[in-house]
Amino acid sequence: MTAPLEEVARKVRQWLAYADEDVLLAQHGLTLAERAPLRLVAYHAQQGAEKCLKGLLVWRGVDFPYTHNIARLLELVADSGGGDDSLAEAVTLTPFAITTRYPGEDADVEWAEAEQAIAIAERVRDIVRQMLAAENLPSVV
Predict the structure, then answer these.
(1) Model pLDDT for residues 74-127, shown as the tens digit of each residue
(2) CA 28, 31, 33: angle at the middle one, nearest 5?
(3) Where residue 139 falls among pLDDT bands split at 50, 70, 90?
(4) Domain extents for the chain?
(5) Crossing angle between the packed helical segments 3-30 and 38-59, to the nearest 10 degrees
(6) For the domain bounded by 3-134, which CATH number is listed?
(7) Which residues are within 8 A (CB) of 25 and not within 5 positions of it... i.e. 6 or more apart?
(8) Model-level pTM?
(9) Which whole-number Å values give the CA distances from 2 to 5, 14, 65, 127, in the listed order?
């Protein structure tokens, strides 16, 4: 691997590591049972999915806006070499990026929604890692 490619691979692995931390934090949040901050669980699940998609875009050399709009990121993924149709469900996470963080914008998140958000983030992570492995990024699976 050439030096510039090694640097790109390092950056992608950073994006994935940050995504893993967000998903881990979301999963851990549910262990708090009745005290679980469900809005933050959903937020971190959204962040995990978003960072995985951004890591894929970095690998593909695509400049992306610093947006929380997963639909926009999926468009960029599709335009840059294709995606996986099962990534489409990730768009349901977009509202958790804003409405769960700010008073007055907040929406209640139910337990089932938080669990579903984590499950979607985990699937996005797995699919993106498989895509990156198929695109010859070493050490991602």
Answers:
(1) 999 999 988 889 999 999 999 999 876 667 766 789 999 999 999 999 999 999
(2) 140
(3) confident
(4) 3-134
(5) 170
(6) 1.20.120.330
(7) 44
(8) 0.92
(9) 5, 18, 27, 26
